[in-house]
Structures are given as C-alpha cells and as structure tokens.
Amino acid sequence: MQEKLHFYYTNDLHSNFSQWPRVARYLKDEKAKKVAENTSCWLVDIGDHVDRAHPIAEAFMGKANVDLMNDVGYDLATIGNNEGITMSHVDLHHLYDAADFQVVCANLHSTAEAIPEWLQPAVTIQSINGVRIGIIGLTAPFNAYYELLGWHVSDPHETLKNYVKNLKQSVDIIILLSHLGISEDQEIARKFDDIDVIIGGHTHHLLRTGEHINRTIITAAGKHCTFVGEVILTWDHSENKLIHKEAYTTDITHLAKDLQTEKTLGELTEKANNLLGRTIVHLENSIEVKWFQDTEIMQKLTDTMRRWTNADCAMLNAGVLLDQLHAGNITYKDVHRICPHPINPCVVKLNGDELLEVIRASFTKELIELKLKGFGFRGEVIGRMIFSGLEIETEVHANENESVKVVMFNGKPLDQAKTYTVATADTFTFGRLLPEVAKSETKKYYLPEFLRDILAQTLRDDYR
What we know:
- By secondary structure, this protein is α/β, with parallel strands linked by helices.
- It has 2 domains: 2-271, Metallo-dependent phosphatases (Purple Acid Phosphatase, chain A, domain 2), CATH 3.60.21; 279-462, 5'-nucleotidase,  domain 2, CATH 3.90.780.10.
- Helices cover 30% and strands 28% of the residues.
- It contains 15 helices and 25 strands.
C-alpha cells in the first residue's frame, strides 16, 4: 500500500493582509478536501508571518496574526526574524500562548527566563496510517539583536547535529522548517542526508517545483503569500520507505477570498486604529516631508537620535519618513503610518577616513535615488542623507551632482586617525549600501525601540 502525505505551507507573509483572505480560502478548501478523502494533510508556516509594518501587527503585537492562523487551521510553524527580533522579550515570550498549532524552533533559547511553554525544538507527528514524521524548526541567528532581547540562537548546523541523528532513530521521515534562506538550505541538504524535505523562507526565494540536492528536496514560496506551497510525499508501506517527493507552488492571486476572514480583518483594522489612536502631540501647523531635500523634521529626528544614543554624530536618510503630518492631533497611528519600518537605531565606530567616505557616498545620486527593498526598509527610496553633529560644506556641479568639499567636527576637519561614534539606521549595517558602516567591527544596536519611537519622542520634545 502507498500513502500520500500532503504539507501545505506559507512563508514570509510579512503581515500582507490584503492577500490573507485568499490564503485562508485556499488552505481551508485544500484541507477540507484532504480530510474528506481521509488523506493525511498538515498546514505549516515558515516564519515572518508577523511584520509590525502593518497596523494590525503593531497594535496587537503579533497576537492577531496568531489568531488568524488559528482560524485557518495551521498545524505547525517556526519563527522568523520578524517574530524574533522586532518585539521585546516579554512580547515574544507570550506571542504564541494562544496558538492552536505547534511552534517548532530548535535553535532559539531564552537567556532571561524559562523557555516559553509553546516552544518545542522538534516534534513528531503521525499520518493516518502510522507513518512517523519528525519536524525540526530553525531560525536565522541574528544574535547581535537576539542577545540584547534576552534570547540566543545557536548555530543551525550544530543544532541539526544534535537532533537529526537521534530523531532518525524514532521516525520514518524528517522535515526541516527553515527560516534560514536558500544558501543555508542548500548547504544543509549537502551535509545532512537524513533530512528528507526542507521547507524554506527568509530570503523570499520562489522554487516553483522544488530543488533536489542529494536525498533532500528543497522548496519555498517567495514572499507575501502570492504563492502557497505544497509538498507531497509518497510512502510505500510494503517496502517501508519513502519512494517519491514532490514540491509545487500555486499562484493564488486570482483566487476567491474567504469572506469571513475579510470581515475579521476589517474588524481588526478598526480595533487597531483605536488602540493606536492615542494623541502624541497637537500640531498647529503641518509638517512637510521631502525625500530629496533637507527638512526641519528630518533634522530634528536625526538630532534626537544622536542625543538618544549619545553618539558623536548621526546620519539618517530622509526616505524613512513616507508622508507629511497634517495640523491637528497626531496619534501613534500617524507616526506608524509615516514610519512603519522595523528599523532600529545603531551606533558604529568609524575612523575619520571611513566616515568621510561614507559621507561622500551618501551624496551620490545612486544612493539617494536607490529604490530599496528589504533590510527592514519599507519605503520607496533611500532619499537625501541628513546629518547631525557635523558641519558639511558641499558644492553642486553643472550636471547637478553634489559633492563634499569639507567636513568638520567640533569646528575641526575630520581626523583620519580619530575614531568617531556614528548613529544611523541599522539598515546600513547590512549589505553593501555603505560598506564602511557594514564592515565596522563595532556595532551597538538599540532594541526594542524602532525609529518611529524616536520620531514620537522628537514630536513630544520639539513640536509641543
């Protein structure tokens, strides 16, 4: 006898709730079909379901996301970095208290208190006809953040060494729920022969029909749940082994929505608006926001960040503010609307030459006009860089490019041998946007505060 095992999965929704009613309808329908056929079926999420860029996720600190997953009927989930490092320790500790599904993450450890009751390193599930399936979860080890929040994420490969061998002795199939990214998934498939399936996420890669490496099939469904993934495993009971592995992703953007889910989201939106509706400040005049010019609000925000971090100087890109603030009562909802990014302040150490190179790069059109996606940034373009604690003289050339002539700190030119502390958005500590910042050997992240918390403080201090 052969038995089909079906796993439907989502990854990296990032609170894109406009798509969620379609996800709900598709998964509910597919699960109902499999139940009617008496076929084994599980619904799985691979993390970054929560993204505090959305007001619902912000207002309910991710718990509304969990309720929505409960309603759909999820069976298993692991956590992503957006669940892990964008909340305080207490908020993450209680995020899944009401989850009707099992949360699996083998490399997340609490250093501040006992581990949450919902957190399991690995679980064993069983098919209708008795096939035993071991599920392990892993999340990306952003320990520069996690350890400031009272958590530690152990090395994924070392964690797998500790779990896979023992798990293999008691199960027939091993599946890894991996919020590590495509490169890590491929490397794990090459190293661990006993892992049959890796369902991935984090790097938003889309594998329409899966990828086979050694004995392992790897799959992932992109981002924002425009695709939903499915893994189909065929177990031969007479031979007592797994004989076939398939993985597919389905574009659901054209499918019907679940009307009850859509109604629920409307109710959650109204409740979120109320929760975020407390007044921060009353403005007599509107505040202008411009991405490619110096503005008062950006200067004051950058000044606040410098003082708040006690850095020598600060730099912040104008693209972090998405819209103006109109005269009248300004609420936390307004602050969230114009600064939705899960971006934290960070202080790096740069010598004078490195700082000068960063400043020069920040005035190039290539950086100012860069349309950035990712690294926590939820805006459109980087925008003009605003500085605090530095006096910068520039000149504009005939081709309208602007270049740096002189940079002064405390009335003196930058000293190439001196080390300066520079506050900025943590966005620039990743990738190659500003290499000197990314390569700095000293980075101090400030958590759990986001830039919008600094913006709210700026409004209280400077606009009363």
